[in-house]
């Protein structure tokens, strides 16, 4: 089983190997993604980002259901198994990214790609994208959004804490800008994967 | 003929109405169903409320008991919500352990209580480190016709406002708690979160207060919980069709109006209860 999965290369971004550094031009942490690392499932991906359960499962499931073209696979069950290897904050967003990459790896037809972005608002109203676990705990509000790749529309949102209407719009705009980086990363990592094989 | 069309093509049937900006039950897209609330109906509970949103009915009973405070927060009490969706409310649910929808609703109510800070857990502490109140809030859906979350939050709010806790003193000699049932006081409810739910149709149309049928046909759902200061306690959108920022803004404005309506209704009910 070990031998057959090593046909793919490990894919890392150019932002450096320090897990706590943030890439230039955006305040998201360093990404890494590995695909097709398990032989048994049809598709698999591991998503490393930066260094509640039924509720979270339902959020991820509903987001996937909205984009996957289920009508092309009648009487089929698509099971997405997410195993948390380490949690350094922004867990739900990372799960969403991993789920999207795994669905792409499995070749499941989708209307659009989706990505998860987390925003944290601290007590004086400063916006932080992709917070660490410590920042999340100290923040006044933590908002997680799932955005689609076509028009950056809001597919899923879950929030914790109190925030105003204006802050919501601000976070949403920042998340939409950040999602562009994530989608660019998806494209680059897929390009690299398919250009090698 | 219309009934046949509705069975065969329910979504198209709905679209015909939505084109005329109304819904099969005669409501406009931004209109809520008739909301009624009845407070204090359960005499064995410390606080209770029954809320009806059209056909959807949810009853909330609050029981207060003693407990030792958690070791990491010795000056805090507990508020434990639980949403039960029994088979009697809808044929979708089976008897047995709580299904996914009930668990998600319970988690949602717990999040609203936590995020809105409607009750300060410190207020529930009687003696730090030794004794605190725990409020068990049981929400039971009697009839599920869509929009459970709105009904649950409203019922919870009304029930908590109805709760009267007796005065408790700790006797220094015996170190036992003495409850004075004659002296009761209301809880200090700091904020009044009100939930407004929407069903998303075809990525553009937003229907307020969806019925069970509309929920099943809709592509997605959105719930906004606001308090009276215009702050959002929760923006719950569990997947479904995409929404632009402008549409989200419309939802938030509708939530503001709804908050005013609900607050007015609740104040009227509580005012009418005062002379006792």
TrEMBL record, chain A:
Asked if the record carries the keyword Amino-acid biosynthesis, the reply is no
The Swiss-Prot or TrEMBL record describes its family as follows: Belongs to the RNase PH family.
What's an example Gene Ontology biological process for this entry? rRNA catabolic process
Which domain of life, per UniProt? Eukaryota
Q: Where is the Exoribonuclease phosphorolytic domain?
A: 54-109, 113-177
> Can you quote a single GO CC term?
nucleolus
Q: For the region Disordered, what residue ranges are annotated?
A: 1-23
Query: Is Nucleotidyltransferase one of the keywords?
Result: no
Q: Which UniProt keywords apply?
A: Exosome, Nucleus, rRNA processing
* CDD domains xrefs: RNase_PH_RRP46
One Pfam family, short name = RNase_PH
> Which organism was this protein described from?
Phyllostomus discolor (pale spear-nosed bat)
| Primary location class | nucleus
* Name of the protein in question: Exosome component 5
Q: Where does the record place it?
A: Nucleus
The GO terms describing molecular function are: RNA binding
From TrEMBL, chain B:
Instruction: Outline the extent of the Exoribonuclease phosphorolytic domain.
Output: 31-166, 193-256
- What is any one GO biological process for this UniProt entry? U1 snRNA 3'-end processing
User: Any keyword Acetylation?
Assistant: yes
User: Where does the record place it?
Assistant: Cytoplasm; Nucleus, Nucleolus
Q: Which GO terms describe its cellular component?
A: cytoplasmic exosome (RNase complex); nuclear exosome (RNase complex); nucleolus
In Gene Ontology terms, what is one molecular function of this protein? mRNA 3'-UTR AU-rich region binding
What InterPro entries does the record tag this protein with?
ExoRNase_PH_dom1, ExoRNase_PH_dom2, ExoRNase_PH_dom2_sf, Exosome_comp_Rrp42_subfam, PNPase/RNase_PH_dom_sf, Ribosomal_Su5_D2-typ_SF, Rrp43
Which keywords appear in this protein's UniProt record, sorted alphabetically? Acetylation, Cytoplasm, Exosome, Nucleus, RNA-binding, rRNA processing
**Pfam families assigned:** RNase_PH (PF01138), RNase_PH_C (PF03725)
The family this protein is said to belong to = Belongs to the RNase PH family.
What name does this protein carry? Answer: Exosome complex component RRP43
């Amino acid at each position: 089983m070990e031998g057959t999965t090593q046909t793919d290369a490990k894919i890392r971004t150019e932002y450096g190997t320090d897990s706590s550094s943030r890439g230039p031009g955006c305040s998201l942490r360093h990404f890494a993604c590995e695909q097709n690392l398990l032989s048994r499932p049809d598709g698999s991906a591991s998503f490393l980002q930066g260094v509640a359960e039924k509720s979270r499962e339902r959020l991820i499931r509903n987001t996937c259901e909205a984009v996957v073209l289920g009508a092309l696979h009648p009487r089929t069950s698509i099971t997405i198994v997410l195993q948390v290897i380490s949690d350094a904050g922004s867990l739900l967003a990372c799960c969403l990214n991993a789920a999207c990459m795994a669905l792409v790896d499995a070749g499941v037809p989708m209307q659009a790609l989706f990505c998860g972005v987390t925003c944290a608002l601290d007590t004086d109203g400063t916006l932080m994208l992709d917070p660490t676990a410590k920042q999340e705990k100290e923040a006044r509000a933590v908002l997680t959004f799932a955005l689609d790749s076509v028009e950056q529309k809001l597919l899923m949102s879950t929030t914790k804490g109190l925030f105003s209407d204006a802050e919501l719009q601000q976070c949403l705009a920042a998340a939409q800008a950040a999602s562009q980086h994530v989608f660019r990363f998806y494209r680059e990592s897929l390009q690299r994967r398919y250009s090698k094989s | 003929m219309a009934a046949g069309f509705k069975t065969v093509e329910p979504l198209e049937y709905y679209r015909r109405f939505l084109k005329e900006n109304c819904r099969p039950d005669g409501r406009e897209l931004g209109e809520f169903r008739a909301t009624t609330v009845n407070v204090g109906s359960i005499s064995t509970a410390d606080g209770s409320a029954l809320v009806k949103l059209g056909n959807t009915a949810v009853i909330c009973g609050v029981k207060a008991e003693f407990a030792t405070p958690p070791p990491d927060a010795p000056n805090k009490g507990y508020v434990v919500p639980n949403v039960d969706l029994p088979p009697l409310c809808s044929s979708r649910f089976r008897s047995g352990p709580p299904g996914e929808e009930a668990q998600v609703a319970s988690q949602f109510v717990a999040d609203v209580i936590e995020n809105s800070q409607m009750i300060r857990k410190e207020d529930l502490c009687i003696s730090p480190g030794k004794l605190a109140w725990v409020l068990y809030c049981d929400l039971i859906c009697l009839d599920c016709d869509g929009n459970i979350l709105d009904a649950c939050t409203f019922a919870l709010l009304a029930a908590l406002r109805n709760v009267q806790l007796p005065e408790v003193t700790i006797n220094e000699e015996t170190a036992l708690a003495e409850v004075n049932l004659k002296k009761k006081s209301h809880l200090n409810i700091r904020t009044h979160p009100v939930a407004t739910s929407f069903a998303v149709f075809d990525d553009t149309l937003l229907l307020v207060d969806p019925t069970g049928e509309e929920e099943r046909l809709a592509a997605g759902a959105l719930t906004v919980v606001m308090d009276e200061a215009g702050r959002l306690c929760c923006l719950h959108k569990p997947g479904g069709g995409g929404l632009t920022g402008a549409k989200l803004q419309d939802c938030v404005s509708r939530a503001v109006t709804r908050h005013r309506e609900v607050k007015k209704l609740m104040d009227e009910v509580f005012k009418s209860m005062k002379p006792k």
